[in-house]
Specification:
mainly alpha
Length: 64
């Protein structure tokens, strides 16, 4: 079975939300993702998942 087209776009449920959080914190997206994923942070589960997705998309972009 072939994967559905545009699967990455469907994985992003709230476009721009994580970037907005990073800007409010005064950090870049990559820096904010690292900050959120550190042990002991009090970030919500949604924010942690957004950080994981941001890190994954960054890695995918590097490969292309």
């Amino acid at each position: 079975m072939t994967p559905p087209k545009r699967w990455i776009q469907k994985a992003i449920r709230r476009p721009g939300a994580f970037r907005a959080k990073a800007r409010r914190a005064g950090l870049s997206v990559a820096a904010y993702a690292s900050h959120v994923l550190r042990p002991g942070t009090r970030a919500s589960l949604r924010t942690r998942r957004q950080a994981i997705l941001a890190r994954t998309l960054r890695r995918l972009r590097r490969r292309l």
